[in-house]
Design goal:
By secondary structure, this protein is α/β, with parallel strands linked by helices. The chain has 2 domains: 43-293, Rossmann fold, CATH 3.40.50; 307-492, Nucleotidyltransferase, domain 5, CATH 3.30.420.280. Helix content is 39%, strand content 18%. It has 18 helices and 16 strands. The strands form 3 sheets. It has a 7-stranded mixed β-sheet with strand order 3-4-2-5-6-1-7. It has a 7-stranded mixed β-sheet with strand order 8-14-11-10-9-12-13, with helices on both faces. The longest helix has 21 residues, at 8-28. The chain starts with 7 loop residues before the first helix and ends with a strand. 42% of the residues are buried.
Length: 495
């Protein structure tokens, strides 16, 4: 029956049924709840992913969730304002502590949640959930104290409260606080000594980050290189990370894989924060871009390799056809079953003799065991203009020996595999970097434009302060292979 043939009464009944269906959906799914209570919320594809995992947290299908997202992308509206309200609708007995970098900010979230729960749209969905009991700016009770929401500052902690869940939204106010080792340690102590001790076996934890520093709460929990890292604790966390511009690798290794509809270097939310804006920001403030926007906080700038030394050229501007040359591939192998070890560095490049320049097609760092690395490298080489004349140059340490042997076999690619000369390896990382500096500074090394550029330059520019230096290793091996000849630091070597 078409809508035009319905009577007025039938139309009213249909609208009532549609509203009831919307209400049922809003009670049973967080994303629908958000749209019901805030009709103007612009729900994007990545918000859908966040909402689906917040549903899992609400049902305790998962109990620990981290969300990394660039600023001004709606994470706080979802997670710190509306999610607690949704939880109280599902279970008025929830006892939630909501923390932020200071009490003032936490109070703001508490008051926002209080306001949402008083709105008619919320009361339509959850009429049994009432704001009855003690009510202050920092704290409110639900159904005469059966549940509550309490704000707390990471700078002051929380006492005397047992909770069924904690939400921590941006524990650092800004870069100055994040760069302070004392502040980072204080926040870690507040989290581990105060917040965590308020939880029981069925409690949930939700952390929302714009990442300022590699040694933030996320780094201390998730980074195998951090002294506070605990492998079992790390495995308990579900991690979702969104980068402002799409790259060819995840911002953090342990983050979930998800279906990202973007092309490489596309913006996360183009209509609100354009690709052009982020490309400019990447150029002007690469360190801030890497941490806040890409969720890849790096160490403080080093003093060995300057960012301005890395020239970037578009592929269609190359002085040669990449399909007609023979690139070489450098590997610094670190495959292992120990997650705390360094990454394996891979570099694909071509030395253009007429210009005396090295062009790098791609450089990346990955953490894979040998059985995973072999097929990965085969695909990596093919995607970076593999030729029958190409060579693979491997650092000859313990992990490099079996890799060399297997890559030489036909079933694993039948590559022409060479070793980095032992005397070059013996120079040591620091000396190799120093030897490479003149060639970088004089414009002998060019990067092919790609989403990998930022991560590569970050690691080089922060050497020796970065957690990983695998890409630095393969870069210096390549520079020594093509440019550094004769006697170096008193050591004679040949190719």
């Amino acid at each position: 029956m078409s809508n035009s043939s319905l009577t007025r009464r039938q139309k009213i009944e249909r609208l009532k049924l549609l509203k009831l269906q919307k209400q049922r959906n809003a009670r049973d799914g967080f994303g629908k709840f958000v749209l019901y209570t805030k009709g103007d919320y612009s729900m994007q594809w990545f918000h859908d992913i966040v909402c689906s995992y917040l549903d899992k947290l609400a049902s305790r299908e998962i109990k620990k969730l981290m969300i990394f997202m660039p600023p001004q992308h709606g994470k706080t509206e979802l997670s710190s304002r509306r999610f607690p309200a949704y939880l109280f609708g599902k279970n008025p007995n929830e006892k939630i502590i909501l923390g932020s970098y200071n009490l003032t900010k936490a109070v703001e979230f508490v008051m926002d949640c209080n306001r949402i729960m008083q709105e008619p749209s919320y009361q339509e969905l959850f009429p049994e959930t009432k704001l009855i009991g003690k009510q202050t700016a920092q704290y409110f009770e639900v159904n005469n104290g059966k549940g509550f929401l309490k704000g707390a500052g990471m700078d002051s902690g929380v006492t005397g409260t047992t909770a069924t869940g904690i939400i921590i939204d941006d524990p650092f106010k800004g870069r100055n606080e994040a760069n302070s080792e004392n502040t980072r340690s204080k926040i870690w102590k507040t989290y581990s000594d105060d917040f965590q001790t308020r939880l029981n076996n069925d409690s949930f934890q939700l952390m929302l980050f714009t990442r300022w520093h590699e040694d933030d709460l996320a780094g201390r929990i998730l980074d195998p290189e951090n002294e506070n890292y605990d492998e079992e604790e790390s495995k308990e966390w579900t991690v979702i990370a969104f980068s402002a511009l799409k790259e060819d690798s995840k911002p953090i290794e342990c983050a979930l894989d998800y279906d990202d509809p973007r092309e490489l270097d596309d913006a996360l939310w183009e209509a609100k924060h354009s690709k052009e804006k982020y490309v400019k920001r990447r150029r002007i403030n690469p360190t801030g871009f890497a941490s806040l926007d890409q969720q890849r906080p790096s160490a403080l700038e080093g003093n060995k390799m300057l960012r301005e030394w890395f020239n970037i050229i578009k592929e269609n501007e190359l002085p040669f056809n990449p399909n007609e040359v023979a690139p070489d591939y450098f590997i610094d192998g670190a495959f292992t079953d120990q997650s705390q070890n360094d990454e394996t560095g891979l570099l694909a490049c071509y030395y253009h003799k007429p210009q005396n320049r090295l062009y790098i097609f791609n450089c990346t760092g990955i953490r894979k065991e040998l059985y995973e690395l072999l097929p990965f490298f085969k695909d990596y080489a093919k995607s970076n203009y593999l030729s029958t004349r190409s060579k693979v140059i491997i650092e000859p340490k313990a992990s490099g020996k079996p890799l060399k042997s297997m890559l030489s076999k036909f079933e694993f690619g039948g590559f022409n595999v060479l070793e980095v000369p032992n005397k070059v390896v013996a120079l040591g990382k620091w000396n190799r970097v120093e030897n490479s500096e003149p060639f970088l500074a004089s414009g002998k090394v060019w990067l092919i434009q790609g989403s990998w550029n930022s991560r590569f330059i970050d690691q080089c520019a922060t050497f020796p302060n970065a957690t990983h230096d695998d890409m630095v290793d393969v870069l210096t091996y390549a520079i020594h292979h093509y440019f550094v000849k004769g006697e170096v630091k008193g050591v004679k070597y040949s190719e």
